[in-house]
Design a protein that fits this description.
alpha/beta, DNA polymerase, domain 1, 2 domains, 8-stranded mixed sheet, 13 helices, globular, binds iron/sulfur cluster
């Protein structure tokens, strides 16, 4: 194995711990089996895209307690040059093994050094090789403004990982990263840069929360996400379940329930995409979502005052509150009504994609209740 291949194996493997923007799975087919750093990325609309996902280096001076690269871990530390990453990526891309690049890095010295190397890769691809495809650059905590500006001018998407919902939560995870100055301040800069220029990172900025590494509640996490959508123009939040990685200070820490992250995604979708107010979500006395039921259904049960919804009159927003009615079926109801349709039977709703069993207790058709609100 060459030196470069060895590095690729190590740095491609390390990159899998960053979930921001995608749900990762290793691409597993006969072409990619022997090739590290290739991950399937699942987009929001359900498509799967293979990406080259790698770290510039696993050297890091930070002490994030959940991370394999934390500064006290004694293991094989390696580093790519920008030229290395550029040529490996182009090799994969030209052989149709990947459709885009996701680049992140440890921070061996000050963030400027690592961020500069990452920007250099993007610059080489765009300017020297005319590459026009997808690039996602991680913005490293504490990066300087001018490098962030260069990053957003070259990348389709940028992200800076928040990991914790509160400054206190971050203090429990790392003593070397400052929540307000190293992260939130950079998010604000990105927001300002993107606002003034449509060419800059057209897919916007995203972030990742690490769920269950600390005792932060679902309510705290969703409050922060909701604030980020309003204050930072954040496009999406990712809720990665904490994994207890061997040789890290949190290797014995309990991992979260497997349903926790999926419930957070569902609740977040209501806030970011369905127009729900945070106050409409229901949390238990500990501040967590119900693991056994979808948050939209739980919210509907708790807000009887919004129901039943008259299908033949309700606004798009009110239709979206109904369990069993998603964006596509709500749009179809509105479009059908515009064409003169008056819905009389549940079967007619079923035909356009409404999940009748869920929706029935919450709707009326031409003033007729379809079921009683008994839960
Ligand atoms: S900054 Fe923290 S999370 Fe990132 S590589 Fe270093 S130790 Fe890991």
């Amino acid at each position: 194995m060459t030196n470069l291949s060895k590095k690729l194996e190590i740095l491609g493997e390390s990159a899998k711990f960053d979930r921001c923007s995608y749900i990762n799975t290793n691409v597993d087919n006969f072409l990619t089996k022997q090739l590290p750093g290739i991950y399937n990325a699942s987009t929001r609309d359900g498509c799967t895209v293979p990406l080259f996902k790698v770290l510039m280096t696993n050297k890091c001076s930070n002490d994030c307690r959940y991370c394999i690269n934390h500064n006290k871990h004694s293991f094989n530390r390696v580093e790519f040059s920008p030229g290395d990453v550029t040529s490996i990526f182009l090799d994969y891309y030209n052989n149709r093994l990947v459709e885009g690049l996701f680049l992140s890095s440890g921070i061996p010295q000050d963030p400027e050094y690592s961020m500069e190397n990452m920007v250099e890769v993007a610059h080489k691809l765009r300017m020297d090789h005319g590459y026009q495809g997808y690039i996602h650059l991680k913005i490293l905590p504490g990066s300087p403004y001018d490098l962030i500006k260069r990053a957003v001018s070259l990348a389709d998407r940028v992200s800076i990982n928040l990991e914790a919902a509160t400054p206190e939560g971050m203090e429990n995870l790392s003593t070397t990263k400052n929540y307000d100055t190293d992260i939130l301040r950079r998010m604000k800069w990105i927001k300002r840069l993107l606002k003034g220029n449509k060419e800059f990172s057209p897919s916007g900025q995203t972030t990742q929360f690490l769920v269950g590494a600390d005792d932060e509640t679902d309510k705290q996490i969703l409050e922060r996400a909701d604030w980020l959508y309003r204050e930072m123009d954040l496009k999406r939040s990712y809720f990665s379940p904490f994994e207890a990685v061997k040789d890290t200070p949190l290797e014995s820490h309990e991992e979260p329930h497997p349903k926790r992250s999926p419930r957070l995604y569902q609740a977040d979708h209501l806030l970011n995409s369905y127009g729900f107010d945070l106050k409409e979500l229901v949390f238990d006395d500990d501040g967590n979502l119900n693991l056994d039921s979808d948050p939209k259904y739980v919210a509907a049960q708790a807000h009887e005052e919004h129901f039943p919804v008259e299908i033949n009159e309700a606004s798009y927003k009110d239709l979206l509150r109904v369990p069993g009615i998603g964006k596509i079926s709500a749009r179809r109801i509105i479009q059908s009504r515009k064409l003169g349709k008056n819905f009389l039977k549940l079967e007619e709703l079923k035909d356009i994609g409404v999940v009748i069993k869920r929706a029935e207790p919450f709707i009326k058709l031409n003033k007729n209740y379809q079921a009683t609100l008994e839960f």
